[in-house]
Amino acid sequence: MEISNKKRTGLLFLTMMLLCFQIQSKAQEDSTYKEIPVGVILNMGSWVGKTIHSCIIIALSEFYKVNGHYQTRLLLQNRDTQGETLHALHSAQITLSRLLMLSCLPAFELLEKKKVQAIIGSDSTAEAKFLAVLGDEARIPILSLSPTPSSHNHPYFLQIAQDETIQFKGIAAMAESFGWKNLVIICENTGNGREMATLIVNGLVEKGISVTYTSLFSTSAGDELVQEELQKLSSMQTKVFVMHTSPSVASHLLLNAKELGMME
Questions:
Q1: InterPro entries recorded for this chain (predicted)?
Q2: In the chain, which end has fewer C-beta atoms inside a 10 angstrom radius, N or C?
Q3: What is the spatial distance between Cα 91 and Cα 160, in angstroms, rounded to a whole number?
Q4: What does the pLDDT look like over 150-174, one tens digit per residue?
């Protein structure tokens, strides 16, 4: 269940407005605009990255339209990850040091060369965890777009996306209302996917609902492997499935399920 563009725009607008208010007091004595560099780390080639970047631009434009008297201006320093961290997370051979480098290299560059005063980014849970530590070390705000909270022990880490874990209570409540006693969970076989699967299971167990099987699909799995796993699911007595995956993986699974006659 993804956050709507309208909600993302609202959250980003509010966050940028608060950031503008925070830094305004630093430049009251200046007669000209004082530029405050803010880093933006996104996968600009993805639909989500493009949407978030557009929302940030719109939020800034609207804010300064209303508050033209402000003597500060946020200067965005964009860094395109080109999906490198995401691809690394899906690789079985990725090392911790390699993942750390991919996650934090753009942030280090922004801190050292551009002297940014805040960083917006980390739309994946894994990236968020690394940047949370970096924010503490550099003592600058990390405005996270990750849907799962990681800010309890990191005072400079601010989650500005809606908490994705709320939806799992809704899933559990829906299952309870329909009287479903046994379910199968389908998620992606990634760090974030496994974490989501655990959260879904916990929410269902709290309602007294049993999870008979958790199926983790590789994002790179071909049709043969997908159909093999789907046939395994089809042979089970449990016929209620809860799927939590990216749109691309969901589409791949559903097309194969239809081909096997599981959607009739």
A1: ANF_lig-bd_rcpt, Ionotropic_Glu_rcpt, Peripla_BP_I
A2: C
A3: 28
A4: 556 888 888 877 777 788 888 999 9
Q: Is the pLDDT of residue 87 over 60?
A: no
**195/125 Cα distance (integer angstroms):** 9
The angle subtended at Cα 68 by Cα 63 and Cα 70, nearest 5°, is 90
What tokens does 32 get?
């000209």
The total domain count for the chain is 2
Residue type, 98: R
Residue 264 domain-assigned?
Answer: no
Task: Give the pTM.
Answer: 0.60
Mean pLDDT of 175-192: 90
| Strand segments (E) across the chain | 34-42, 72-80, 119-121, 142-144, 157-159, 182-188, 210-217, 241-244
Residue numbers of the domain that contains 187? 166-258
Residue 240 lies in a domain: yes
- Give the span between the Cα atoms of 63 and 75, in whole angstroms: 14
Question: 196 lies in a domain?
Answer: yes
Residues 142 and 210 in one domain: no
